[in-house]
Specification:
alpha/beta, two-stranded antiparallel ribbon, 9 strands, 37% helix
Length: 407
């Protein structure tokens, strides 16, 4: 390996493998080891080590290696995705692609612990939180989570922490995205939580669940009026988690206004490419009463020593690096780069622009459903064909939200 690193200063390996000969020697000296091979033997079990040597060619120049990698990447075939289930094709505005996604200054925005040098990053995350609060109608939102499935699992454990019930039952609507149901089940098993999946309108709250998860709109595109359902849930002492499509919330009444206690979802369709399944930033929003239980990072507005507005990470008892035994989650993580992209997508289009995109998406859904009816001659039961102009859960309507967007 040392010969490989030092044989050619323009070699791909020499430019991309960090430690040089002197740094490697110092590292081995500190570890009291004689070679990198000895380091590998002491750290990697023999059962998983490669039995033969790496089949590597002689060192090649970086330019040639990058060209070969590019040619290899050209073999990928990119198709239009119709999978649905929370994954949607979208357009990344070029200004966001150039200045955020492809800008090295944004690559390492995971957690800006040092507020003194991170005001710009914190401001971008505060913008994400504000966007989510506005769309969901809740008092507080975090600065992104890993994906929608794990956000739903985090919401389940939040409900268990704040619930006054001793129940270990969590209900999940069978019209939630299937991958979300699977992640919730996986997280619930080691915690001893029983997950019941079924139709939301058939669930008997006499079973005393501590929480429930519903999808809005559902994985099939249906838009249900959940107000009666949430009323029954609250009467039984059950908390309600709504997994919501943020673009749909540009037209529909926010879950915070029809009775949900927590909202989760994915912001992928706000300008973030599909990326062969991920990653995509999730969100969580909830009532102010639960602000010390919400997982992830929260950006708060404070003041500096001169009394000027300043931003910082707030309520950090959830973090592993602060108080591990008090952390609200030791699993959750953030997708800050993608959260910044999603929030800037909302800024780029503005509230009216988001509404127009949502209306166009709905019209395309109408068109697709009508085409299927014309082709097959059958009826299609889908919420995409619901006339939202007369829907009881329209945003800003007589029965809907009166609050204007404030992105």
């Amino acid at each position: 390996m040392e010969n490989l690193l030092n044989s050619n200063s323009q070699a791909f390996a020499a430019r991309h493998i960090g430690p040089d000969h002197d740094e490697t020697r110092e590292m081995l000296k500190a570890l009291k080891l004689s070679s990198l091979e000895e380091l590998v033997e002491k750290t990697i079990p023999a059962s998983i080590r490669l039995k033969r040597g790496l089949q590597m060619r002689p060192p090649v120049e970086e330019y040639r290696m990058l060209r070969e990698l590019f040619e290899m990447g050209q073999k990928n075939q990119v198709f239009r995705s119709y999978i649905g289930m929370g994954y949607n094709n979208c357009i990344t505005p070029p200004v966001i692609q150039r200045n955020i996604l492809e800008n090295p200054g944004w690559y390492t925005q995971y957690t800006p612990y040092q507020a003194e040098i991170s005001q710009g990053r914190l401001e971008a995350l505060l913008n994400f939180q504000t966007m989510i609060m506005d769309l969901t109608g809740f008092d507080i939102a975090n600065a992104s989570l890993l994906d929608e499935g794990t956000a739903a699992a985090e919401a389940m454990t939040l409900c268990q922490r704040v619930s006054k019930s001793d129940s270990m039952l969590f209900f999940v609507s069978d019209e939630c995205h299937p991958q979300t149901i699977d992640v919730v089940r996986t997280r619930a098993e080691p915690l001893g939580i029983e997950v019941v999946v079924g139709p939301h309108d058939k669930f008997d709250f006499k079973k005393s669940a501590f929480g429930c998860l519903i999808q809005y709109p559902t994985t099939y595109g249906n838009v249900y009026d959940y107000r009666e359902f949430t009323q029954r849930a609250h009467q039984a002492g059950c908390l309600v988690v709504a997994a919501c499509d943020p673009l749909a919330l540009a037209l529909l009444m926010p879950p915070g206004e029809w009775g949900a206690d927590v909202a989760v979802g994915s912001t992928q369709r706000f300008g973030v490419p599909l990326g062969y399944g991920g990653p995509h930033a999730a969100y969580m929003a909830t009532k102010s009463d639960f602000k010390r239980q919400i997982p992830g990072r929260l950006v708060g507005v404070s003041k500096d020593t001169l009394g000027r507005p300043a931003l910082r990470l707030a309520l950090q008892t959830r973090e592993q690096h602060i108080r591990r035994d008090k952390a609200s989650s030791n699993i959750c993580t953030a997708q800050v780069l993608l959260a910044v992209m999603a929030s800037m997508y909302a800024v780029y289009h503005g509230p009216e622009g988001l509404k127009k995109i949502a209306q166009r998406t709905r019209r395309l859904g109408h068109f697709r459903a009508a085409a299927r009816i014309q082709r097959d001659g059958d009826s299609v039961e889908t919420g995409l064909r619901t006339d939202l102009d007369a829907h009881p859960l329209q945003r800003g309507g007589e029965k809907g939200s009166e609050a204007a967007h404030s992105l």
